[in-house]
Design brief:
Blueprint lengths: L2 H13 L5 H24 L6 H35 L1 H9 L4 H40 L13 H27 L19 H24 L7 H6 L1 H10 L1 H4 L1 H7 L6 H12 L1 H39 L4 E4 L5 H8 L6 E13 L5 E9 L2 H7 L4 E4 L8 E5 L10 E5 L5 E10 L8 E3 L9 E7 L5 H10 L3 E4 H8 L5 H31 L2 H9 L4 H40 L10 H26 L4 H4 L2
Parallel strand pairs: 3-8, 5-7
Antiparallel strand pairs: 1-9, 1-10, 2-3, 2-6, 2-9, 4-7, 6-7
Helix pairs in contact: 1-5, 2-3, 2-5, 2-6, 2-18, 3-6, 3-13, 3-18, 5-6, 7-9, 9-13, 9-20, 12-20, 13-18, 13-20, 13-21, 18-21, 20-21
Amino acid sequence: MKTGTIRLATRSLRAGGPALLAPFTALALGVALMATTLLGLAAATALPPGDDRTALIAQLGTGCGVAVFTAGFVVASSYAYAVARRRRELGLLRLAGATRGQVRRSVLAEALLLGVLAAATGTALARSGVPLFARLLTAAGLAPAGFRIGTPGWPLVTAFCTGPLVALTAVAVAAWRAGRVRPLEALREADVDTRVMTPGRWLCGLALLGTAAALTGTALFGDPADLLHRKTYTLQPMVLISATALLAPALARPPLRLLTARRSRLLPRLVRGGALTGVRRTGAIAAPVLLAVALAGSLTGAPATVAAARAAEARDRTAADHLLVPRDGDGDALAAALRGLPGAVVSPTATTRLAVLEPDGTAVRAEARAVTDPAALATVTRLPVAAGDVTALDDDSVVLAEEWGHPTVGDRVPVVLADGTRRTLRVAAVLRDGTGDNPVHLTPRNAPGARTDRIDLRLAPELEGRLRDLAQAHGATLATRADWLAAQYPTDDPTRIRRIVGVLGLALLYTAIALAHAVLTATADRRRELAQLRLAGATRTQVVALVATETLAVTTTGALLGAAVTAAGLAAMQTALRLLGTAAPLTVPWQALGATTLLCTAIAVTCASAAALHAVRGRPVAALR
């Protein structure tokens, strides 16, 4: 870029410091979290293989993705409104002889400088905050005790380079819009937005909306279980959020008209007129609310829906009256003693390791259970058999779910057993996928080293006393069907809640900063308008009430759009569950939606009232000078 462009961008950055506080803060926090999570990922890859390592890597990767998206969203929406506010300034530059290209390069240079400063700040924060981050992960139970994070160079460099890249990408559209400002915009005084939904905005919004629909439709018609994966239900709603944000000026008009429909009093009519004519201002305030509510609803509702579906599936599949967890090494002896109870159906099983070989030779690890008595298993469980017969399981066969390439009964499947032995087993039965919680079933001969760790039992009620005595004598844990289901599939899983809070907390902090900044800036820009209301006879209290009521209507509209995004995502998941044969109730995160809406409303109305009170504190005539 030319020296003059950089000089102009530097001056604009200094002059617009307060107006750029929200994008700077969001980008700095985003870079800090990205650097921290990358450092955490580098440390997590050094952990021993296992479920804890996999869960930690997934948690850090999800948090990094949400942080980058949220930071980009805030920067893009903040800059779009900042460019709209600077129409007079940009028009004066055009009147002074600046070309469209020079104006665009000036905005891009300003964003580049902002991105570099935010990246430097975020990298410094990450480097100093890594020990605290490691302690927080350990305290929350998301990382093993003694987890330490180093500071290798590549994560810091990667995060630093991402800052300017996100800033330039987010500001690209705003820069293009800035170059289209005409010289006559310098003479414009009105704050009425006559053409917010440009053809380009319609095209981008509808394209993203079509992309979201295509992703959901492809999954529903291809692999419905894909919508139940954490990566999908965490990242896919971001496409729909972006589409809704771009189309917000058009989508917001119907709910705004409905919320301000009363015409019997002057105040609602002024609220209606201000909200519908100041569409850019409305969009700038509604966008952070939309983001916050949609993320809160999606990130809490989706995992809760999956958990509820798995719990319902487990209730349908568990036909045992009691379940026992034997003392280590005593499972076979306990099972033999239980078989001595009259009429008892005993099904001991053991956890084992197994890998299924894909056609290209890749070994895919799977959860597997060794079944001692297939006939007893079929009695104490209601497995979702799509083809074949579970009782046909023998030492030369295996029971697989459809997710393993949709096998058919009689197919030969190469597997790697726990001791590394390779065998080719015949498919005895195929299970429907459901929520994807189906283990591979095989016999103890194909599970070397496996020890019985669960016994499903059916027996007459009058024998429960003898059952308790046997369990106590063998040191086993005994639970009824209801107690076992409640323990294995809790409604409020603390680990799941901690993971959600870890991903959602910083995203809500971003949006709170962006919302407060948007409200304060938008209200400050209305100083002349509010002064004219004062000259028309309105009192200070009426003016503040007007601004607060309008902000409440806009915030409510943003919350409704966010709730609509959440509803669309949960409806897609519900459809996927039905296609998978799982009848689970729809879990609506009312508490998360309500709490986030109340938080956004409190922030927006408080900031709007304070800014309006500050704007009307002097003489109205002074504001018109």
